[in-house]
Amino acid sequence: MTPPHAKTWSRRGRTPVVRVRGRSRRRISIAALTCYKPGHRSRLIYRPRRDDGNRDGRKSFSWRHYRDLLIAARTQLGGPIVLVWDNLNVHKAAGLREFAETRDWLTIYYLPSYAPDLNPVEGIWSLLRRGWLSNVAFTTPEHLMQRIRSGLRHIQYRSHLIDGCLTETGLTITPR
């Protein structure tokens, strides 16, 4: 709920100030996949998850949430998936590994440790933070969630932005 800072314009001598009432301990997590296929439009598939505020509840995605995201991606894309993931501990969970081993349509490769510059999804987060989430004082978690969804929807419909995130990594797609 703490807003990111960004540069903006204003009249000379009138510095814009965004007032924030308080900090919320609630968390919103988002998992996203950037999908590339030669000769096809790039896609962005995402799932937000709000922390429900329970002390004993999980605040972020579990391996089951990632499994469900992969199943939804397979349904949307309609073909085999070659997944390139960072080394987040949940991505390497035993349950997710077992799930991947039993699916012939899923192949997983891992990026080197501490290499966010090779992950195109980091570019999506950068676009979101610098655009739709900057200089906004969120009044409620619902307000934040609405801005996140509208920003991600905007990116989803502009495949050149998703392509730019891949280009920024220096990685390429090679046809099979």
UniProtKB/TrEMBL annotation:
The Tc1-like transposase DDE domain, residue ranges: 5-143
Pfam family of the protein (one): DDE_3
UniProt superkingdom: Bacteria
Stated name of the protein: Transposase
